[in-house]
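Data card: per-record layout.
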Amino acid sequence: MTIIEFIQGIFDSGSFIEEESSYLSYSPVIDYDNLYTASEKKNEEIGTPIFYVYIERGRNRVHYLPFTFLEHQKEKLRTLPTLRSQIEIDYYTRQFPLLDVKLIETMIFYYGVKQDNTAIIIRYEYDNQKKFYSINQKMMKSISMTRLKLN
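The structure for this 151-residue chain is written out next.
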């Protein structure tokens, strides 16, 4: 029973990452040095773009804006990542070395829309000791979007 509890603890912590897990694959946008589209890659197949991604290499910052031409655009704009488990962090960061972005001291900015149609900008800061991203509450901003209509 102790062994089963130990194994379950490993799975629950997110320390174990499956070989077949999905992650984001970044494709450069032509004529832009720091602009990419990010698509989900699973089982060696790349899907449709999910995010626009802007990289600030010198400042080690990554900006995510949901790709606006998705079929389920509203759902993607309202899905805010937590980035606390290793599996969720790996989903975004697995290909960071190819983008010349270091995980340590990385900041991720996520732009989305809340249920009440207010825009939200969240800054995630990587904590190397805790091994997860925490939300910087000072940077979390909501902007009224009464004029913006989501279809």
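Known properties of this structure: Residues 131 and 146 are 38 Å apart (CA to CA). The chain has three helices and eight strands.

See the next section for split statistics.
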